[in-house]
Write a structure and sequence with these properties.
Strand order of the largest sheet: 17-16-13-14-15-12-18
Structural class: alpha+beta
Keywords: FAD, Flavoprotein
CATH class of the largest domain: Alpha Beta
Cofactor: FAD
Number of helices: 13
Radius of gyration: 24 Å
Strand content: 15-25%
CATH topology of the largest domain: FAD/NAD(P)-binding domain
Helix content: 25-40%
CATH architecture of the largest domain: 3-Layer(bba) Sandwich
Protein name: Membrane protein
Bound molecules: dihydroflavine-adenine dinucleotide
Largest sheet: 7 strands, antiparallel
CATH superfamily of the largest domain: FAD/NAD(P)-binding domain
Shape: elongated
């Protein structure tokens, strides 16, 4: 096994407990660093709301149905049972998301205890320089700690996000070396950035958060999320933007309804009939005051008492707030991305076992072209793909 992260450790523990001899190699000195920093340090380790009959609802990839088999054979309930068996306290937050009460360290201890129970051997830090086929059809690895021979090789080296804690393209390189196809990787669950000059009117809003509806795609492929938006110095973040970023295609717009809970045209017409207040002050009932101020500053027709605003000006304001369309210039990249979209092409993998078309070579977790939504879905994929693989080794 190469990679002592979420998928690698879990697969190693299950395989070891099935009686297999397992060696885990990781080039990093620390174990499962991404698990440690996940979920703000509390690891959103799964989600109660996964509809395995409709995996495309929560997973992105060239074939979103690929993950169905593994997810239905090892479910969120199975992982919750394991967490409970280890006495780890946890709680449910928003939308079925489960987090550790204390810290993600509890989850890492659990994964290591499961490895111990399976007699798993682990070498860290231990880089892998080369992998080749051996004469008997197994694999030979050149590592920092000498050569390793194995009949079966599992790659669990994750994606490219957060290079500072050891992310590499190792898995993609091995896939290509053995003639497997890969889907071009790109950052997912990542803040979006905007051109400096175009962003100037909003730069002062950094730190502001509000609930929105956000969408991207054309009529056929439209995807919408109802989540919180966060303004940053360089652009937009928050759960709404992280979710939409996994669907956003470079050069296309995103559209945001900044006041989804109110019928703005009706509310503004009503306000015009009764209020002497400035339009910005009326608007501040429905959106944060800082946003209302920044918004009306964009048009002199809006900088007056609401009863003096023309119907046309009010209609324009309502339309722009409910359908703010903007084209991101890019993303904050792998430095900030929670996941990597793309990866080893699922057409070259078995959905039953995660074995690739190259016999004896398996890929599990984020290195595969299966990416979950924000909310514990990526860890559930790591557990489920790892389990499917461990049962088939
Ligand atoms: P993972 O990245 O966990 O492990 C890969 C391992 O391979 C690492 O230990 C690495 O050192 C090792 N490795 C890499 N290259 C190697 C090489 N060349 N040689 C040897 N070893 C190598 N998901 C979720 O469901 N809930 C959440 O709360 C969060 N939160 C979150 C926050 C942040 C900041 C990030 C960056 C990500 C998340 N995620 C998340 C995503 C989640 O962490 C991720 O999808 C899983 O950790 C993927 O598990 P893997 O085991 O596939 O890779």
């Amino acid at each position: 096994m190469v990679g002592a992260g979420a998928a690698g450790l879990f697969c190693a523990g299950v395989a070891g407990q099935r009686g297999l001899k397992v060696l885990v190699l990781d080039h990093s000195a620390k174990v499962a660093e991404k698990v440690r920093i996940s979920g703000g340090g509390r690891a959103n380790f799964t989600n109660r709301d996964i509809d395995v009959r409709q995996p495309h609802k929560h997973f992105v990839g060239a074939n979103p149905h690929f993950c169905r088999s593994a997810l239905s054979r090892y479910t969120a309930a199975d992982f919750i049972d394991l967490v409970q068996k280890h006495g780890i306290p946890f709680h449910e937050k928003h939308k079925g998301q489960l987090f550790c009460d204390r810290s993600a360290g509890d989850l890492i201890d659990m994964l290591l205890a499961e490895c111990d129970a399976g007699g798993v051997d682990r070498r860290q830090p231990c880089g892998v320089q080369a992998v080749r086929l051996s004469a008997d059809g197994g694999y030979e690895l050149d590592t920092d700690q000498g050569p390793v021979q194995t009949a079966k090789l599992v790659i669990a080296t994750g994606g490219l996000s957060i290079p500072a804690i050891g992310a590499t393209d190792f898995g993609f390189r091995i896939a290509r070396q053995f003639g497997l196809r890969t889907v071009e990787p790109r950052p997912g669950l990542v803040p979006l950035t905007f051109d400096g000059a175009a962003w100037a009117p909003y730069a002062d809003l950094a730190g502001l958060a509000l609930p929105v509806l956000i969408e991207t795609g054309d009529k056929k492929n439209r995807i919408v999320f109802a989540e919180d938006l966060l303004f940053t110095h360089r652009g937009l973040s928050g759960p709404a933007v992280l979710q939409i970023s996994s669907y956003w295609q470079a050069g296309t717009p995103i559209r945001i309804n900044l006041a989804p809970e109110v019928d703005l045209p009706a509310a503004l017409t009503e306000a015009k009939q009764r209020s002497r207040k400035l339009l910005a002050n009326e608007l501040a009932q429905w959106v944060p005051a800082r946003l209302a101020d920044a918004w009306v500053a964009q048009d002199p027709d809006w900088q007056r008492p609401v009863m003096e605003c023309s119907d046309k000006a009010l209609a324009r304001l309502a339309e722009r707030l409910a359908r703010w369309e903007l084209v991101p210039t890019g993303t904050e990249g792998y430095k900030k991305a929670e996941v990597t979209l793309g990866g080893v092409d699922t057409r070259d993998l078995s959905q039953q076992s995660m074995e690739s078309k190259q016999p004896g070579l398996y890929f599990i977790g984020e290195v595969v072209d299966v990416t979950g939504w924000l909310g514990g879905y990526n860890f559930q994929w790591a557990w489920a793909s790892a389990h499917a693989c461990a049962m088939a080794l």
